Amino acid sequence: MDIPAMRANFATAAATGDEAPLYFYSHLFLSHPETRQLFPVSMAHQRDRLFAALGDVVARVDDLEALVPILQQLGRDHRKFGTVSAHYPAVGASLLATLEHFDDEWTPELAKDWTEAYTLVAEVMVEAAEQATEQPAWWEADVLAHERRTIDVAVLQVRPRKRYEYLPGQSVSLESDLRPRLWRYYSPANAPRPDGLLEIHVKARDGGPVSSALVRRVGVGDVLRLGPPVGHLALEADSDRDLLLVAGGMGLAPLKALIHQVAGTGPARRVDLFVGFRTEDQIYDRADLQRLEQEHPWLTVTFAVSEDKVSALEHGDVGDVVLRRGPWTSRQVFVAGPAVMVEDTVSRLVQDGVPRQRISSEVFAPSRPGPTVEGELTE
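RESULT FIELD:
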């Protein structure tokens, strides 16, 4: 396959903005009307999502060792949409039609390369989905508690009706009857518990239909659906290295789960958690974090505010505060939060001597559909 030519071709289509996704879905729904039921009634929050995902695949198409596990995870996850193997050829045909439509330099060779690449992608995803048929496509979960912590943040306690296995640091997709067929990813803020309870942190985003519903309309007694767990933030099983955890905003959730994991299963280690917000009144989980710090002498929690001149807390971007408290060269590091904060913090830590291979990060990006190749989360 001519990978550079494929990437250039995809970039040409992607550069048209909404036009390429609109053409793709129009072609798909007209040629295969049965696929329309897989998507939300309103496509306003869907149009660019498939192309964003395809862009992530294209970026790794020449690195099968990294790409195949991602495709397998997607194949298992897509069962919750009702996707079956017969849908994949339809999507592939519409993809090729779209890429050809927006490229005046389309060639038979390019068509052949795209066909081979998509066939490989589809085969991996279908095989993974078929191997997962013994587990549910989704799990129903009851909302047992719903607490508004700030005007736009809520903490939910939900319990799946059937056994739901996940790892601390992973993410789960949620769907509500209030927003049918719109799935969004959130990280449980706790390690798995004997009672099966999951703590979910949600911030209502401007234009975010799912997050707004979860914060403002979902209540105790409602039922959510959970997709299979996904994600890559995880403690190394054979390491007892001390930890540095750096969270911006809602990136706190997966890092809090790692703290619960250390508290429950060890091994013993020092853990320093830094949590950054713009203002002190946005720190929605302060009481529980301080409780954890009091219960565990190995844990230190530091709050940072970047735009609150009257606060007595540490001032500055959370990355600045972390560097002031360093050095951290011996630590295993986890960073989660908005893209700018994650990129800045990781860059500063690397420049300060922390080996890049000992830093794991996850970007929480409200415009994305879920975890991507680089580990981004939505809403």
